[in-house]
Amino acid sequence: MSNERIAGGGPGGPGSAEAVILEARGVEKRFGGVRALSGIDFSLRQGELRCLIGPNGAGKSTFFKLLSGQLNPTEGDILFQGQSISGAQQHAIAKRGMGIKNQVPTVLDGLSVDENLWLAARSVLNAHEASERADRIKTRLGLRAASRKLVGELAHGQRQWVEIGMVIARDPKVILFDEPAAGMSDEETDRMVELIRELNEQAAIVVVEHDMAFIGKIARQVTVFHQGRILMEGTFDEVVGNQRVRDVYLGRGQDT
Predict the structure, then answer these.
(1) Shared domain check, 176 and 91
(2) Would you state the pLDDT for residue 104?
(3) What is the pTM of this model?
């Protein structure tokens, strides 16, 4: 992909900024008597790309849902750009500048690709600007041939790209990806790697993913979850070389 910004908007390259843009303070999440997360302190800086990993049941997906407003913390707080978003509706969080790409695409199946992209862009731009942005995104994501098709008629991979287009059409400051490579072909996965790297030039990114090969291609900093807590944070090489992390992934850590 070229260096042209997909969405447009402010200048790219915020990677040198040091300000914390997304933060969790003392977060705990309980479901009835089950504690899914406990004592989570987490901070994401502007321009950062952070991957969240851990075995099944470790708490990373629950944490993703707390960051994205799909769940509310039982204790503690989630802050976005210094303001609490705990208890806020997802549309309100999105309006503040957070883009959310769920594992199952959240798209308007009864509308065309063009209409989905335009409506997303129109939420932050005037009609003419929305059309121009949607057109750029459609070209960049390889959706031009399918532009007039109903999204509900598309294959899974194409529907994923439509939702990604809808997310970046709003030019978010933070993008949360939940297993972005799930169900994609090898070629689509390589495109996703390239896209995430490009988007990171203009937004901070959090990626939850099981595929360690995919993580290895994009990771800068990695947070490892284990039994509802953060086990460690570090570079990809530091994480995969850590014996405690290896034990957890091999089942020696008695993760639930």
Answers:
(1) yes
(2) 78
(3) 0.87
Q: Does 186 lie in the same domain as 256?
A: yes
Same domain, 195 and 222: yes
Give the per-residue pLDDT at 34.
93
d(C-alpha 167, C-alpha 171), whole Å: 8
Residue type, 61: S
CA distance 52 to 61: 9
Q: Based on the domain organization, do 48 and 131 belong to the same domain?
A: no
Looking at 126-185, list the stretches that DSSP marks H as alpha helix, in order from N- to C-terminal side: 127-140, 156-169
Nearest to 85 by CA among 20, 2, 167, 23: 23
Number of domains the chain is built from: 2
DSSP 112: B
- Residue 99 is predicted with a pLDDT of 95
Asked if residue 237 lies in contact with residue 208, where contact means CB atoms within 8 angstroms, the answer is: no
Please report whether residue 231 resides in a domain: yes
DSSP output for 77-95 = EEEETTEE-TT--HHHHHH
For residue 197, what is the domain's CATH number?
3.40.50.300
CB atoms within 10 A of CB 224: 24
Mean pLDDT by 10 residues, the chain (256 residues): 42 54 97 94 96 93 94 96 92 92 86 97 95 95 94 89 94 94 84 94 94 91 95 94 88 49
Which of residues 171, 200, 224 is at a domain's end? 171
